[in-house]
Amino acid sequence: MMYERYIDVEGYWGILLCYNYDRDDYDRMRSIMDSFGMNEYRIIEAMDVLKHKNTGMAISRSDITMSVMFISPATSHEQFMDTVAHEIDHVQFAIDKHYGVECGSEDAAWLQGFMMREITRILDE
Q1: Phi and psi based region of residue 55 (left: phi greater than 0; alpha: psi -120 to 50; beta: remaining)
Q2: How many CA atoms within 13 Å lie on the side-chain side of 47?
Q3: pLDDT digits over 67-103, tens only?
Q4: Other C-beta atoms lying within 10 Å of the C-beta of residue 26
């Protein structure tokens, strides 16, 4: 069963975190990808990647100030967190670019910490 949790970045950006999915969730995942503007070809490519363990994907749309992060089941807790950190980087880049935040700045570092704290809190539930 896929878990879907929403993270609000102080009203500036929304992040839909999707994790712990399996084959029964593929239709829902495809629907989310379609709502983010992915065409059928890109959805098929994405699903080919996401069906494997230790993978993830982030899709961001600046026009709606929103991202989705898919995190596949992992072979270990460490691998899961590695994938989360990787996808956070993609989301952070999209947010920084949209708002003109300089890479390496205090604001960028705060955003990274905020997302990691929120995701850790969600996973601890």
Answers
A1: beta
A2: 20
A3: 999 999 999 999 999 999 999 999 999 999 999 999 9
A4: 14
**Beta pairing, strands 13-19 & 3-9:** antiparallel
Residues 14, 64: Cα–Cα separation, whole Å: 9
**Hey, what amino acid is at 67?**
S
Let me know: does 56 contact 84? Beta carbons within 8 Å.
yes
User: pTM surpassing 0.90?
Assistant: yes
- Letter string b/e over residues 36-56, b meaning 16 or more CB atoms within 10 A of that residue's CB: bebeeeebeebeeebeeeebb
